[in-house]
Each structure stands twice: as C-alpha cells, then as structure tokens.
Amino acid sequence: MTHEGGSEGAQRPRVHVLALGGTIAMTGELGPGVTPRLTAEDLLAATPGLDAVADVQAEQLRQLPSAALTRADLLATARRIIEVLDAGADAVVVTQGTDTIEETAFALDLVLPGPQPVVVTGAMRPANVAGADGPASLLAAVQVAASPAARGAGVLVVFDEQIHAASRVRKGRASSPGAFTSPDTGPLGWVVEGEVHVLAVPSRRRTVPDVDAALLERIRVGVLPVQLDDDGLLLDAVVGLDRDGRGFDALVVEAFGGGNVPPSLVGDLASLATRIPVVLTTRTGAGMVHTATYGYPGGGVDLVRAGLIPGGWLDARKARLLLTLLLAAGVGRDELAEWFV
Q1: In 10 A of CB 57, how many CB atoms?
Q2: Strands 195-198 and 55-64: what pairing?
Q3: Phi, psi of 101, rounded to the nearest 5 degrees
Q4: Which residues contact 13 (CB under 8 A, 6 or more apart)?
Q5: What is the pTM of this model?
Q6: Could you tell me if 123 and 23 are in contact, meaning their C-beta atoms sit under 8 angstroms apart?
Q7: How far is CA 323 from CA 31, 86, 208, 278, 316, in A?
C-alpha cells in the first residue's frame, strides 16, 4: 500500500514502513487481552497527515509481540532495511512492541552502515483504547525519517515527539506514552508542530563487521545481576556450566553503582574471565563503570585487574547485544575492549 503525498510533480521523500507487530498493532477485548492484529496497511490508514510528509509504503515483516522477537528476526529486519534502501527508499520506519525496542534499535544501529535515516517507534497503548498513541508515534517517526536532519544520525527511536539515539535510549516506565528516556544525554531532539528539530547527534558510531547468521544463532551471552549480600548461587551455576562445556560464550555482570560486587564473587569472576569475556556494567541505568576509583576487594579497580572488561556507558542489555554481535562477527577477544568506550 502506498500513500502518495505532495503536489503534482513534487519530489517527496520515500519512506518505507516495516511493521513487526507490538502494541501499536494490538486490538481486541481488554479482558481476555489484546494481541497484534493490525497490519502495516491498517497502521497507515489510521494515521492522518502522512500524505503531507512523504510517499509512504507499508510492509508487514512480522506480526509478533516484541517479547517474542529473536536475533534471527533482527537480522532479517536489518537485511530487509538494506534491501529497501538499495531499491530507492530514502528512509525506513520500523514499528514494533516497546518491551524490547531499546535492544532491537541498538542492534540495528550496530549492523546498519548507511547514513539513511532509520527510525523505530511503537505505542504504549493498544489501538482500541482511549488515547491510543500509535498514530501520533507513527506520524512523528515518518516526519523524522523524512527530515534531512536525521541523515547520518544513526538509528533513532521516536516516542512522545522526542527523538532518541538508539545507543542511549531505554524504557523507563512500564506504561505511559512518555516511557522512553535517554538518562545520560537526554533526547537528541523534538518534533514540534510537525517540524523536526535535531539539537544534537551522536558523536561516534561504529558498525559491527559482517555478522555470521548461523553463528549468531549459537552465541550465548548471559547477564548476571548482582544483589545485596549475594550468595553467589547464580554465579556458581554459570561457572558450573562453563566447566561442563555447556555454558556461555561471554557474560555481562550487572554490578552495583560504579561497577562493584561483593568480595565473595571476585574469585569466581576472575577465574571465569580467564576463559570467556566478562563485561562489567552498572545496574543503575545511567553513568559509566569506574575503573580508577574503588580499589577495595570487589571494587571496579579490583575487577578490571582481575580481567573483566569495563562496559563503559552501556547498560547490561546493550552490552549483551554488542557482545553477541561481536562474537558472531568473529571479533577476537583482544579487540573486544575497544568497543566498550
């Protein structure tokens, strides 16, 4: 389905919408529960104002809640984005569920090399409730995708008229149209009265080299959350799996504060780091791990000395994705640390 916009003979940006499902496509009875039912064409038809922005084409790629998306789905989405851009589209908008949008958008940002705008959006409210935000999200996303200001800015996430970098955005509330934030930087810009205002762009982007699809399916990267008075039982399980040859290919530690753990965990983490990459992140959701401040047993200095890789500004979810893609691309262990800066 194509919506033609603009005056006769005018050259309009060509924006391709890829729909993956999610709340933006959900409807049904609220008691039994809503499910993804609306097609990509349905989403366009429900969004007034698109014709004034761009020539928009819709395509249904998946029809899933975002909790059901897999790495294979992400790779298929990235490949389809490249295909439609190579075929002449000026930009791509991806609609999907919000539960994993911070992860999928970041993954796309890591594997898509081109400068063409790619914008990810969705909805916090199903289509059949009062105040459904899907049409407003889709319109704002198309406005951003069609704007020259978005070119070269990397993959963007647009919600509640805010423009976020995929590398920084996170879902900060379980509900509310304003659920998405970028704690370390704030939004890159805003959509105001239909005009796109990009006030800042990410200073540095890196694209992961060619990812082996078959290897991507096999890579296992675990996340270890650290708790007060942690008894180490989860870490014992990770170490045991590793010793049995059935474990993870890498591990992300979601540590306290600036990257600290109980002293009792240090020995096993140090031992594990001799066998697989172990990345250190903070559970706070903002800020970076400290590598030159806390020198006590279990402090960041101690853990880095023990062989853990500082995760920099990335939270555990993004660090896990980056590690997975790097390992699937065959990036050597000695090179991994260079990506976490």
Answers
A1: 18
A2: unpaired
A3: -65, -35
A4: 53, 54, 55, 90, 91, 145, 146
A5: 0.93
A6: yes
A7: 40, 28, 10, 10, 10
- Nearest by Cα to 43 from 67, 64, 26, 61: 26
Q: How far is CA 176 from CA 2, 118, 171, 245, in A?
A: 31, 24, 10, 44
Half-sphere exposure of 174 (CA within 13 A, CB side): 0
Question: pLDDT 10s digit of each residue in the chain, 341 long?
Answer: 444 444 344 589 999 999 999 999 999 876 678 899 999 999 999 999 999 999 999 999 999 999 999 999 999 999 999 999 999 999 999 999 999 999 999 999 999 988 999 999 999 999 999 999 999 999 999 999 999 999 999 999 999 999 999 999 999 999 888 999 999 999 999 999 999 999 998 776 789 989 999 999 999 999 999 999 999 999 988 888 877 677 899 999 999 999 999 999 999 999 999 999 999 999 999 999 999 999 999 999 999 999 999 999 999 999 999 999 999 999 998 899 999 97
Tokens of 235: 């870490």
* Local structure of residue 249 (DSSP, 8 states): S
DSSP string, 166-217: TTT-EE--SSSTT-EE-TTT--SEEEETTEEEE----S---------HHHHH
Beta strand extents in the chain (DSSP E only) = 2-3, 14-21, 26-27, 35-36, 55-64, 91-95, 118-121, 155-159, 162-165, 170-171, 180-181, 189-192, 195-198, 221-225, 250-255, 278-282, 309-310
Q: Which domains does the chain have, with CATH numbers?
A: 2-198 (3.40.50.1170), 213-339 (3.40.50.40)
Would you call 155 helix, strand, or coil by DSSP? strand
Nearest to 126 by CA among 118, 114, 139, 135: 135
Residues belonging to the active site: 23
